[in-house]
Here is the input.
Amino acid sequence: MNILGISAFYHDSAAALVRDGEIIAAAQEERFTRKKHDNQFPSNAVDYCLEAGALTAEQLDYVVFYEKPLETYIGYAPRGFRQFLMGMPLWLRLKLHLPREMDRALQNKYKGRYVFTEHHESHAASAFFPSPFDEAAILTFDAVGEWATASFGTGRDNKIELTHTMQFPHSLGLLYSAFTYFTGFRVNSGEYKMMGLAPYGEPKYYELIMDKLIDLKEDGSFRLDMSYLPYCHKTVMTGAKFEKLFGGPPRKSGTPLTQREMDIAASIQVVAEEVMLRAARNVHRQTGMKNLVLAGGVFLNCVGNGRILREGPLQTAGLSTGTRL
Ligand SMILES: [Fe+2]
Here is the structure.
């Protein structure tokens, strides 16, 4: 059984070949094109995977795309989410005709059907299946996929069941990205820089963020005050109300970093860690499982992962972070 997995048209396109449950090859397209975060169809990565498996596209049993095509769910999406999508660039229009695009990219050689898994299922699979566990609790935190922003559930043997989700616009990934933007870094790229900036600051704005921006529950679920975060209806991540709260406009990329950015970075970092810790504890309470696997772009936050490891309730391993936000 040869399965080719593909992600494309968002950021960091990639392909992977799985044969009878073993990963034969996996690669990101940027490694071949030398274009950072390359989001084109990963033709080079696909070729590489097929070559590694000594296969042609005709011999594939399944080709799987990492999330549902837009047209299958856009009609049911919350209104804010549809507006959010309208502000998105060209890749989105490509996703509307995904099977056609995939046919073209595979040169019409693949005759089987395309399988579309849900975005958070894909993240969950990326963490659970390669983990050393026969069973584990699964927690995902992300920007947004379809319109889910976080999920948890369990994995047992070869089955994954995600029982709980949180939904757009309430997203830890998008909240963290809004602060990434505000501190002058590139969204979906510079999040690690803001995390690296955090230890140079004091979390002076922690209470303010908890007070105004996020209503965080004991179980790690939350609601965001969207009047501060206009990404639902505009193409910007923060607006005038957000600027007022943090004493001025966003830092312009390339200008010097000041203590303000460091303190903001420290503050949102602690908020993110608090959400991650509460959610991890809740997942443990709810599932009773002693293993936890983590995936989704938010878990690229290795500082937060470290806190779950040290302060969380579990024997945490398989800190397998997805590369998708
Ligand atoms: Fe994702």
In short: The longest helix spans residues 259-287. The chain has twelve helices and twelve strands.
